[in-house]
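Following up on my earlier thread - several people asked me to post the actual chain instead of describing it. Fair enough. Here it is, all 127 residues.
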Amino acid sequence: MESLSPLEQALHAARALVLADLVAGDVADADVVSMVEESVSQRRWWVEQWPDGVHYVAGLIAQDVQDSLLDRHGRWPLCPVCGSGDPHALDVEPELGPDPHWVCHKAGVKVAAVGALGRATGGTASS
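Reply from S.P.:
Thanks for posting it. Predicted structure:
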């Protein structure tokens, strides 16, 4: 059996992290999972053009899915930190860098690493 290239390993890991956050927010419907797959496909091409960007794909895929969800379903993920005021989405930081996190700019705090929203929001939808 052939082992996966570092690019494919990074893409699979990024897919898993974003899917975990979608499941935690109870928004992992089939059409949303298709958005993830579309982003993974586009980012595969992007990293093939710029191999040094392989460490950034998790944050980029999270941002891609967030942008796609905004267009089709609304803001995601909603901030679990701010209990009052208008609901607002978290942002991914750094925008282009390793170790991406969901951040609330309103409160000025890191909420969770990409892939760990379930822990920040009290578990997955099934708990």
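The chain has a mean pLDDT of 91. That should answer part of your original question.
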